[in-house]
Amino acid sequence: MASILQRFRYGRPVVVVSGLPRSGTSMSMKMLEAGGVETFIDGIRVADEDNPRGYFELERVKELDKSEDKAWVKEARGKAVKVISFLLPHLPDENFYKVIFMVRPYEEILASQAKMLERRLEDADTSDARMTEIYENHVTRTRAMLRVRSNFAFIELRYHQVIADGLASARKIDEFLEMKLDVKAMADVVDRSLYRNRG
């Protein structure tokens, strides 16, 4: 009944894949695409050594905290869009969001980010200890926000569990989204060889 009422009020939900950078969001987007969900992307950021399967991003998302014009988000209803967790609070209220929130150990996220910076010949401005503190506080606040905003529903997926059992993770996503996805196809795109930065 709650699902029917949400659909009546907001229309089809926007499927949001979120999490910290390098937490497995691109992998989840790839799974959704394989399962039959249309991805809301622009293809501007292309695959590279850090994400050989692609980034599945939409450049307009990066302006959510800056631009007043957010009417375009309605175009993502019934589709999947990737939104970094720092920008979740800036999603407009006139939509219902089903959020798949990716979780990965902070040391692995930081190791992956360090590899990206190294390839770009850049240095980190903040120590790992400080970044871990920032990430911990941010994730705590994000979970609280997701629980209290009435137009948000969410599940958490742990990166390790997706890698270890893609089929179980695909079934969890399918049950949450209620979109009759192809769970086998979703599981088949999970590539364990891309799990390169381990804690």
Give a concise summary.
The protein is α/β, with parallel strands linked by helices and 199 residues long. It has seven helices and four strands. It has helices at 2-10, 25-35, 106-119, 128-148, 159-164, 166-177, 183-188, and strands at 14-19, 80-82, 97-103, 152-158.
Give the % helix. Answer: 25-40%
- Return the CATH class: Alpha Beta
Structural class: alpha/beta
> Secondary-structure element order, as H and E?
HEHEEHHEHHH
Low-confidence stretches: none
Shape: globular
Tally of structural domains: 1
The CATH homologous superfamily: P-loop containing nucleotide triphosphate hydrolases
Give a verbal description of the structure.
The structure is a single chain. By secondary structure, the protein is an alpha/beta fold. The chain has one domain (2-190): P-loop containing nucleotide triphosphate hydrolases (Rossmann fold, 3-Layer(aba) Sandwich). It is built from 7 helices and 4 strands, in the order αβαββααβααα. The chain has a 4-stranded parallel beta sheet, with helices on both faces. Helix 2 links the parallel strand 1 (14-19) and strand 2. The N and C termini lie far apart (42 Å). The mean pLDDT is 91.
Descriptive labels:
single chain; 199 residues; alpha/beta; Rossmann fold; 7 helices; 4 strands
Please outline the helices and strands.
Layout: H1 2-10, E1 14-19, H2 25-35, E2 80-82, E3 97-103, H3 106-119, H4 128-148, E4 152-158, H5 159-164, H6 166-177, H7 183-188
Parallel strand pairs: 1-2, 1-3, 3-4
